[in-house]
Amino acid sequence: MVTIPYSKNTRLQTMPISLPGWWHTPLQAHQLKFFAHYMLFLSCALVLALSWFHWVYHIHLPDRMYLLWLPLQLMGTFLLYLGLPRFKSLPQGQVLALFVFSLMVLGGYLYDSGGAINPLIHLLIAPIAIGLVIFSRQPAFILILLSTAIYFLLNRFYVPIMSMKIPSLNAFFYWHLSGSAAVFLGISVLVMMIVFPLRQKLEAQQQDLLKNQKQALQHEYLLALATFAASSAHRLGTPLNTLSLIESSLRQICPSPQARQDLDIMANQLSVCQKALSNIRRKADRSVRPGRFSCNVTDFLADVKEEFTLLYPMQELPMEIPAETIVLHIDNSLSLAVLNLLENAARYSPDYVALRCELSDNDLVFQVVDHGQGLRETELSKLGKRPLAQHDGEGIGLYLTQMIVERYQGELHFERTENETRAEIRLPKSITEPSHD
C-alpha cells in the first residue's frame, strides 16, 4: 500500500467541470430577439389572465400569484430587454438557463391557478416552438422534456380552482372556454412573430444563393471562353509563323517590284494578324487571372487606350478623366470590359469614338460614345443579356462585358440618341479607395 505524505504545502487539486460542446455555442442577436419576444408575450399573457381572473370572474387566487410569480416574470422580461442591446451573442447554455427560469415561473403560476384545468397550460407549447427555432438538437430536446414534465406534473399537483370562491359553475365554464380561445389566439400571434422573420431571412438567403450560383456559372463561362480564345490563338500562331517564313523566302527569289509590293501587303496583313493574336492571348489571360490590385484611374485608362491604339492605330481616342485622384481596387477583367465596348464602338463608328469617366456620389461611371448608327432600339435592349449570333461577331464581347460588370455589382446600359450611341458601365463607388497622396 502506497501512502502519500501530507504537508502544509499540499494543495487540493479541483477538477474543472466539463460542459458539453453545445453549451458554449453562441446564439446571435436575431435569435435572442425571438426569446425576448416570447418573454414579453408571456408577461402580457400572465398580466391579462390575472386581471381577467380578478375583475371579470371575481376569482380570488393565492397571494403568491401577485407577490412572487408575476413579479419574477416581469422582472426577468425587464432585465432581458435592458441587457439585450449590450449582447451581440450569448452561449446556448445561458439562454437555456433563462428558458428554464421562465418555465419554472410559468409552472408556479399554473400550479396556483388550477394546473392543467387552466387554459394557460397550453402556453407550455410556446417555449418548445421557440427552442426548436433557435437551439441546436440537444438543448431543444432538453426543453421539450422539461416542458412535458411540467405539463404532466400539473395534471397531478395543483391548487384546485374550485376552492377559490368561484361565484358560480357557469362562470367557471365561461372562463375555461373563453380562456382557451384567448390562448389559441395568443399562440397564433406568437408563431406569426416567429415565422414571418424566419421566412424573410430564408428568402434573403435564397436570393443570395441564387446570386452566388449565377456568378459562379458566369465565371465558369468566362473561364471557358478565355481558355478557348487562348487555345485558338496558340493554334493560329503556328500557321502565321509559317506564312511569315514563306514571305521572307519569296522576298529573296522575287526581285520584281510588283511581287515585292504584294509581299509588303502580305507582311502588313500578317503583322496585323499576329498583333491581334497577341492581344487575344493578353485579354484571355487577364480575364481569368485572380486577385485584385490597386491602381490610379488615370493609369488604368491609359493602359486601355494603349491597347485600343494597337488594334486601331489610325483612330483617335479622346478621353475625359476626373480631375481628382481616384484609386481603383479592381482585377484585370475590368480593362477587358471597357476595351470590348471600345472595339464594338469602333466597328460601327470608325470616325469617332470617345471614352469618358466620372465619379458621382454613389457610382463610378465609364462611358463609351460613338457616332455610328449601330443597332436598332429593339436590339439595344438585348445587348449583353446573351450572345447575339451575327456575321460581324457582335454580341459575344458585350456578353463578356455584362458578366464582368455583374461581378463588380455594377450595371451595363446602352442608349442611342439622334447623333450618338452611348454604352455606360456604372460601378459601385466601393471599388474605389481613398487616395493617400
Care to give the gist of this entry?
With 437 residues, the protein is α+β, with helices and mostly antiparallel strands.
Keyword list:
three-stranded antiparallel beta sheet, rod-shaped, alpha+beta, about 425 residues
- How much helix, percentage-wise, in residues? 55-70%
Report the count of strand segments: 10
| Beginning-to-end CA distance, first to last residue | 80 Å
Mean pLDDT: 80
Rg calc: 38 Å
Which overall shape is indicated by the principal axes computed on the Cα atoms? rod-shaped
Q: Topology as H/E string?
A: EHHEHHHHHEHEEHEEHHEEE
Largest sheet: 5 strands, mixed
Unreliable residue stretches: none
Proportion of beta-strand residues: 5-15%
Instruction: Name the structural class.
Output: alpha+beta
If strands are numbered along the chain, what order do they take across the biggest sheet? Answer: 4-6-7-9-8
> In DSSP terms, counting alpha (H) and pi (I) runs of 4 or more, how many helices?
11
Provide structural commentary.
The protein is an alpha+beta fold. It is 60% helix and 11% strand. The protein has eleven helices and ten strands. The strands form three sheets. The protein has a five-stranded mixed β-sheet. A three-stranded antiparallel β-sheet has the order 3-5-10. A hairpin with a 3-residue loop joins strand 6 (353-359) and strand 7 (363-370). Helix 6 (169-253) packs across helix 11 (396-407) and helix 8 (297-311) crosses helix 9. It is rod-shaped, with a radius of gyration of 38 Å. It starts with 25 loop residues before the first strand and ends with a strand. The mean pLDDT is 80.
